Sequence to fold (587 residues):
Amino acid sequence: MSENVNQAEKQEMVHLTINNIPIEVPKGTKIMQAAREIGIDIPHLCYHEDQRIKAHCRLCSVEVTGRRRLLAACSTEVWEGMEVHTDTPIVRDTQVAILQLMLANHHKDCLSCPRNQNCDLQRLCSRFNIMESHLPSVVKEEPRIVTNPAIVRDPSKCIRCGRCIRACKDVQGIAALTYAHRSSDITVTTAYDKPMERTDCVLCGQCSLVCPTGAIVEKDDTDAVLDALQDPKKHVIVQVAPSVRVALGDAFGMEPGEIVTGQMVTALKLLGFDKVFDTNFGADLTIMEEASEFLHRLEHGGTFPMITSCSPGWVNFLEKNFGDFTAHLSSAKSPMSMFGAIAKTYYPEKAGIPVEDIVTVSIMPCTAKKFEAARPEMGREGRQDVDIVLTTRELIKLIKYVGLTFQNLPESDFDSPLGYGTGAGAIFGASGGVMEAALRTVYEKYTGKTLERLDFQSVRGFEGIKEAEVDLGSRKAKVAIAHTLKNARILMEQVQRNESPYDFIEIMACPGGCIGGGGQPIGTTNAIRKKRMAALYEIDRNLPIRKSHENPDIITLYKEFLGEPLSEKAHELLHTHYHKVEKEYTF
Ligand code: SF4
Ligand code: SF4
Ligand code: SF4
Ligand code: FES
Fold:
């Protein structure tokens, strides 16, 4: 405490005025942040609080007394005695001129645009009262690029801000997107303009999460869900991933990280789903199989480190970049895909409904889940286990479409028998959560003792790579957790050099894990991710059962249907295999 106070005392402060309002901020603060301190939002497009500064768009231009040129508020540090003006005629004219130039090169079909009413460009045009485009259009009418099940690009909506490039390169370490050409011809594209899925891209959707316009979006499957819901012959069931319930509220004006499980279930019931189930149940099932697989490898010999495989962006990354190491991946399917397999086998038997009448929908925080569901190995007899995947953003659209006032909805419970999840299932949505859930089960199964302290603090938090050593009695297990593919690469290069000290590794493609997935609400930042993480641990703490192997519905499922973990039936339904994918194009 006293150390912090001393540090604060030592911090040099700078005094300035913004629009004649005096303010004191720490040295090094940018004008943009200083203005926020006094409630002024300087318009911006290329700036993103989690990215390094680009200063491309100049929309944040401000006047500073004594300077002949306007300065970019996002990149200029304050100085002692600085006088900033954010709303002079020249500033406003400049900002309007920049927006007009953008509009001249923009396909302005807001009404049919996936980002309508959730678009930074649209919002800024409305803020500056720009009712029409004054410059002649120079936009190239290009078709939307729809070549894979997850991500759609629309170059005619791109304002060349570079946010997607930074997310792909700096967060994921991939660089599937780049600038091409120069000057007024500049575009953002992939290597040799190839479809994303044929480049290094893993369809994680982080680019779509930071794009301020409709230039990169998830593939919209909401119509397919509405069609299924309106078909009286279909029994439509839905599963919801753990991280959706702590993110959905953002879109309805609730505090980031607010837990909206009950309202979410009510909304899905009102949308017309016949049964609302929980992917947390699937997560518990994944732990049963994955923990058993880990113990089997320990006891009978197997490839180490074993690495989790429930993040499809990560699996795509490994297949494309470390294709000779697929044996390290756990063969246990992801919670979504395990749930799908059970929903198309056990559930029809139990509910007395023909499998051909069942439509399975998943609500996921992830764009790559759309790709995972479409993998040929994720189904049987010509039927996919998961028929349709919607992102959190698409669920928001559906809730708005039917006109529900989400924040006022009463709470309801998930349906049975695939609707009960433990605390271990709940924390799957946070980086470190899968490892913690697995360790709770591995410890008890390996030692035969009861785990007294369920919280493994060392695997929690937002650090890029975390590690821990767990005492299993007769031996210790060394584990590591990484989130983002940039960090995954570090751990995989160790594996490649045969220098990995770990027994078990958890990898999640997205920052913070699924709570920061590429399909989560627009506006997701690292600060918000941390609040969602805390909310998942709160859910876990408050649940009466916090270990997957104690989930009564999972116990019944094994008794009635699967037999034992790793049984022949469990292998047939709940396990899969991965394979090397040759990359065609790379930068
Ligand atoms: S990207 Fe924004 S401004 Fe452009 S058409 Fe879509 S909603 Fe309108
Ligand atoms: S989906 Fe992910 S990997 Fe692909 S371009 Fe976007 S950020 Fe990069
Ligand atoms: S695709 Fe989106 S994020 Fe990327 S440069 Fe264009 S507008 Fe910016
Ligand atoms: S937001 Fe400052 S230059 Fe783009």
